UniProtKB/TrEMBL annotation:
The active site is at K52, S127, S151. The keyword Transferase applies. SUPFAM superfamilies: Amidase signature (AS) enzymes. Pfam families: Amidase (PF01425). Signal peptide: none annotated. Gene3D superfamilies: Amidase signature (AS) domain. It comes from the Bacteria. This is Glutamyl-tRNA(Gln) amidotransferase subunit A. Residues 1-440 form the Amidase domain. One of its GO terms (biological process) is translation.
Amino acid sequence: QEYLAAIAQDNAGLNAFVTLDKDRTIAEAKAADKLIQQCLATPLTGVPIAYKDIFCQQGWRSACCSKMLDNFIAPYTATVVQNLLDAGMVTLGRTNMDEFAMGSTTESSHYGITRNPWQHEHVPGGSSGGSAAVIAARLAPAALGSDTGGSIRQPASHCGITGLKPTYGVVSRFGMIAYASSFDQAGPMAQTAEDCALLLNSMAGFDENDSTSIERDKEDYTRDLNRPLQGLKVGLPREFFGEGLDTQVHASIDNVLELLKKQGAEIVDVTLPHTELSIPAYYVLASAEASTNLSRYDGVRYGHRATEFSNLDEMYSNSRAEGFGDEVKRRIMIGTYVLSHGYYDAYYLKAQKLRRMVANDFQTVLHQCDIILAPVAPTAAPALASHNNDPVQMYLSDIYTVSLNLAGLPGIAIPAGFTSSGLPVGVQLIGNYFAESRLLGVAHQIQ
Ligand code: GLN
């Protein structure tokens, strides 16, 4: 009731939730009360949660914030959502995002922009901007996001909250609407690393419905929360601290560095030489995968269908022309181009090779240190509409987040301070495959 009241008061000004269903929320809360009475509660039972509009949830409109799916009521529930429902979590609603998760500002949503709760003239980041905003504005204590190239960590940083992108394959993608399947990974967003650890405990696990889900033993992601940092080797990749990094963001990272040192961590200089190439590699590969994933939206089985057409081909093209927004169309065109006969070798294949080189760089570095400390974004949250006429400028701002998606590694963004104008700044901790527990522990020690 308390969260519903806060939503009723503040959501209109932020536009962070795009779908709410109060009756259903209350019904789920009552079911959670029963679990508690029957002593069947988990640590998450009765705790409200918000889901990014990318996760299918039976009976809820799951539109990925696209006109294309505006009429789509999911007939089934994503595994990760089901896992949290089984733990007794209560659905508050569905949050705003860039259309099909393509973007870094939440401005390409079919349902309008979301405002940054700290300063309404700034974006919350993206694409999981709605999920980050509801936590920052205290409209939800927990949320899910998805991270293909930074979409959990970057909005978490811009809204002053905590967000974890797990190792690729740790969390099932079944029922999460696909953008770039070899990158997409769901993750928890909350106030603290401790909350994220509790969420991941219920989210993670093998799922036979996702062919890239990893079969491994269940872990307790809270196990390292109180582990001391004495002797921890923290790598600082020199390519992440060069030109383009805002001085105030740099200063916040220096503060975190001091905290780590005070607790006995050792700092080592490392190099990730192919960092610059991660942006072109990511945008070629993610667009290629998007162009094939989005070919399913043809107006035949579900989604938007144009009303005016004279033959089947025209039905397809009119439905897609009307249903997709500009950024999505741009990605489909880039993706189709780089996969086309004659350009495949020059772009797609080259980008795959770069992907391997970026992943190899990380393996070299993660032999020299336990975790990597890095910025999340070059600046704090940009003002609304600042990237409107320059998509490439927006792509370049993903420089510190996309490389670990290319490698499939886990990363966490945690709050690190504020700029002089009062906008939050985050820092990023990156670890080796399956190092989530250690990342959460280090984050907890310095939060
Ligand atoms: N900004 C990146 C993109 O537009 C990342 C988005 C994401 O992680 N979903 O592709």
